[in-house]
Known about the structure:
Layout: H1 2-12, H2 20-31, H3 40-46, H4 48-77
Helix pairs in contact: 1-2
Amino acid sequence: xxxxxxxxxxxxxxxxxxxxxAFGGVADYLAATVTEETQxxxxxxxxxxxxxxxxxxxxxxxxxxxxxxxxxxEKKTEPIAHY
Length: 83
């Protein structure tokens, strides 16, 4: 069942940018309660808000890291004042 859930997750949420490992973790979680193929669609739709929240957190962390990196690079390229 896990493989079918994994395939459905990757198909439905491929645009969210999660790795195979992340989708695998969600599939493991869902496989504990999803026992029939007819339950897969309902289950993956149910985790959509959770995946969106995770994506938002990841995006915020990446944006923060990029901002820090940019600031550090700008510091290094500022001309040194000679007195």
